[in-house]
Write the structure tokens for this entry.
Amino acid sequence: MPSSHPIREAFRAPIRHALGPNQIVEFADGLLAVDESGRIAACDAYDRLFPRLPGDCVIHDYTNFWITPGFIDCHVHLPQLDCRNKNGLTLLDWLAKYIYPAETKFADPHVVRNMAERFYDELLKHGITTAAIYSTIHYEATEIAFQFAKEKGLRAIIGQVLMDQNAPQSLLKSHLQLLNETEKLIAKWHGCDNRLFYAVTPRFALTCSKTLLDEAGKLALEAKVYFQTHLAETRQEWQQAKEMHSFKSYAGFYESRHALSSRSLFAHCIYLEDCDFKILSDYHASVAHCPTSNVFLKSGTMPIEKVETYGLHFGLGTDVGAGPTFSMQEIIGCACEVHPKEMMNREKGFYLATLGGAEALSLAHQIGNFVEGKWADFCLFDNPNFEGRAKKVFVAGQCIWKP
Ligand SMILES: [Zn+2]
């Protein structure tokens, strides 16, 4: 075995992982060997790999289960856990009626702790081991979001939401206060345990002044952290943002704010033009595609062909609470329904929920499949389609969740 750490254990089960969009690898009787540091030492058919393992390696027999890499949720809102299924409205009215009142309650740390506990359990129950998460504008709530992620042991990219205009007064802060708090959170959490990372997180262009976005973009770039926001989710939002900030190109607007890099993650990207996709592509920015949310709010359909033509990385997002489910299989099913079948199928969906998501989050060198040297993040399901609840969830080779 080429791994520099001793191999401590191996997991025997049917195994499935993706090496690319059209490259699914399956072992009907597979073996996943994990080294002492929690990284993948090897993944192969049991018969081939077993004879090469050291004699003292513990073999866990999970032959009644199926192993998949942990799923990756590229876009989700922690404070919106209990806001699902509030239907009948489109984005801007939905935000005003349901979301802003729910996020206002995050001023109370008791509310946040209760929800954070349940939120992370939902992610893990559904086999999600890595997520890009929005908190609220509250500093303490964001601290709690990080603390719980650390305790639970999953990987997370988290950001305090930035808003300084065009939302209820209780959810606005000055840009100076927001940036100051963001800097403190970056210093404390970015890179923590090699599992937690910071994302500078303006909600979207309508709730942010140009000054705030300017400073936010620069901060993300200088601190080398992620930048995440919602972009061109609905036609109405696109139109209002254009009038408010008088830009020609929506992506160009973020380019001028210095907010584009390979660590920039834009949710939705439904109403973008070719020039916008070109700009995002020039900076290797990524897209979080949230089909169940887009259907739920009747926002539209992400132009998957354009995203691929311009070579943008994109992964899947649950976008809870506009998205009604944490189930990646339901999200893949929805993607198959809304996109032409030559652009999307279940196999590609599986890739997007694992390696594709890792690529979108610039983490493909660490996670996303069972290539040797990556972290052993994986889940056991009791069915070959990975539907329903996970039976066990592992991050870096350690079981962090079971029913
Ligand atoms: Zn969202």
Residues 75, 77, 230, 267, 319 surround zinc ion (CB under 6 Å).
